[in-house]
Amino acid sequence: MSIQIKDLFSRFRPFLIYAGIFSFFVKLLSLSPMLFMMAVFHQVLESRSVETLFVLAGVFLFATLIDAILDTLNTRLFARFGDTVYLELRGPVLAALLHNRKAAANDNHALDDLDTMRSYLGGTGLKALFEIPWIPLFVWILWLFHPSLAVLAIVSSIILFSLTFLEDAVAADAQVRAGLKLRESRDFIHYACENAEAVTALSMQGSIRSRWEILNDEYLDHSFTARSRASTIVAFSRFVRTALSLLAMTTAAYLCITVQGMSSGVILASTIVMGKTLAPIIHVLSSWRSLVSFRASWKRLDTLLQAGQGSGQGFRNPPPTGELSVENILFYLDRDRTILRGVNFRLAAGEMLGVVGASASGKTSLAKLMVGIHQPSDGVIRLDGIDVSQWARNGLGEHIGYLPQDLQLFKGTVAENIARMGHAYQSVDAVVDAARRARVHDMIVRLPRGYDTEIGEGGRILSGGQRRMIGLARALFGRPRFLVLDEPNSNLDGRSEAVLLEVLRQLKTEGVTIVIVAHKPSILQDADKMLVLNQGRPLLFGAREEVLRQLGEVSETDARSSSGRPRKKVISPVQS
Questions:
Q1: Residue 492 — φ and ψ, nearest 5°?
Q2: 301 and 345 in one domain?
Q3: Does 202 fall in a domain?
Q4: Percent of the chain having pLDDT more than 70?
Q5: Is the pLDDT of residue 227 over 90?
Q6: Has residue 49 got a pLDDT over 80?
Q7: Same domain membership, residue 28 and residue 119
Q8: According to the model, what pLDDT value does residue 100 have?
Q9: What is the DSSP string of 434-483?
Q10: What's the domain range around 284?
């Protein structure tokens, strides 16, 4: 789903019109006290009529009640607008977060940014901006009193506007930096708490505290800079507002003394209208920090959504049969570090491939490329002839199985995790089927509540081997025809590894295409083919027996070379 925030606001143009109409009547009815005072001075005091006083009081009291009701409705309208924008954006933002694999660290706080936007749009910040267009109305009323009062209001508005822009210019950057440093310090301490066991075991508390204090001090420095700069302007603006109020009253009083026919009620009325004229600017100035946070959140979310364009649902391809084609893959995260180069092979449906190689040879990266987590920098990976990078955006994950090296389970029940956090209790048969095929059904039913057992954050109540096997059941949920397993035998004892071999043999007889990433070839007993990676390049590819034989020759040659004997020529990569 492709979406731009500015386009979203265009769709809500009717709201802006209704908000403007509400704001107009609210501001108009807010003049009731001023009109009541003038009526008292001109009608009641001159006629000395108690009946007139009570009638006027009743009329303007009713007007004030209507003003309160409209203001309440207006506030609810803005709150609903903020919630609606939030509801419209939360899906695309979450989709962009989950699909944008190269998202910056700050994108992890995108939902916080979305909440910041909701708070500003639904609070007093946006409401204050809608009051500004009605400033000319109050200036015109002051002009009716006397042109000099209108000129004073215009000059006062210009001064306060200038202070608002000055505050933004001198303190906005420091506030944005403070916000980023606050996020960074919170992220650091959050990750430290997640790894509290390692921190405690390795006595890292002092180092963690020192590192966090450095980050927190940077936040405090930027925050102090922003607040100190802003406080000077805020204090000066408060002085200006007080001085302008006094000046407005002084001017009105002077006009009452010197201008024939101007009553003393103009003093109070002009002071009230002058306050109404400057109030919107004062509200904007007081909500300046919220406005800065809103703009920064808007910019970050817009960048995230632009990067995540095309991550929505498109044409749904049929389930794959498992025919895999990896065509001259080049992959790097930055141009100074190439992870994979020149990887090229094919698998027929139902074949099993074992990928081996030393650490940091690119095995895990290749696995992530095959399931669409990353996109190749060059080349293409096709499943049933369809580009995996494109298919991954349109429901590929529903048709494949993936067991990552760094397995993460979610807080919830065993059944929910196997069902990939879907509606497990609407797919009971599929959940049990996946558990039986992974040979973990018996283990699950022995848990305290069986499939309903809550496993906690990351599956902490389970052992490493149990988490691994439940992760395998999750990968098998829905009977996928293409399976990628990254180090499936890690954390498994000998008996569990034997069970895993049985699972793989059964899957192979069912015609499932399987790719297994492994450090040791012991788990690859039933593999049809093997790929050996070395520093991101394919060293060997071919039938398992042939690759193992050539690997043995290479190892034997290396041993002879180390003993001073002539080194055998290195074998060229086997092509598919």
A1: -105, 140
A2: no
A3: yes
A4: 86
A5: no
A6: no
A7: yes
A8: 59
A9: HHHHTT-HHHHHTSTTGGG-B--GGGTTS-HHHHHHHHHHHHHTT--SEE
A10: 5-307
